[in-house]
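[audit] Reproducing an earlier prediction to check determinism. Same input, same settings, fresh worker. If the tokens differ from the archived copy the diff job will pick it up downstream; this log only records the rerun itself.
[audit] input (201 residues):
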Amino acid sequence: IFGVPVSSSILYAGVEINIRPDEECLCYTMPVVIVKCAEYLREYAQGTKGIFRVNGSAKRVNEIQALFDSGPDYGQSLSFESYTVHDAANLLRRYLNSLPEPVIVHQLYYLFRKVYEEYQQDDEGLIRAFQASMVYLPRAHQALLIYILDLLAFFAEQADQTLMNTTNLASVFQPCILAHPHHELSPEEYKASQSVVACLI
């Protein structure tokens, strides 16, 4: 499932979840690796300093990746008991970075950048414009974006303990969420894309 398009891998390594359980039913099929890592992190990584930035064990992360990459259940029965929260956080990042396209697909890169540039002084307008822009994402990517942003917002709220505020989280996740189609970013462009991701969080 690593390096495989989301829309393909969820056909054999996906789980159906309601990504907004406290609101109206919004059911999507999500990559099992994302759901397993996120659920473990929500339960055990609260308040963990440097979450998503501190490295786990490369050996253990490779072991977990191999389990999620192997049938027949592609990690659905995996227990994280032998691993750390940093292992799980690293695996989640590795999966996202391995995708052929970022979570916000290349085709919509300029749309999200334009929305931010036009509405950055208008919070309510910016939220509405981003919500409208998400409709254009492929369904699998739309679900993944909502799910990942919700997870990052959960940890951003604990920034006084984790030291990972929205800016720090955006610097870690920008390459896999909103990457330039030609992978050529000047420092200014890179910073602008980070600002978009921070705003989305």
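[audit] rerun output stored. Observation attached for the diff report: Residues 139-156 form the longest helix (18 residues).
[audit] end
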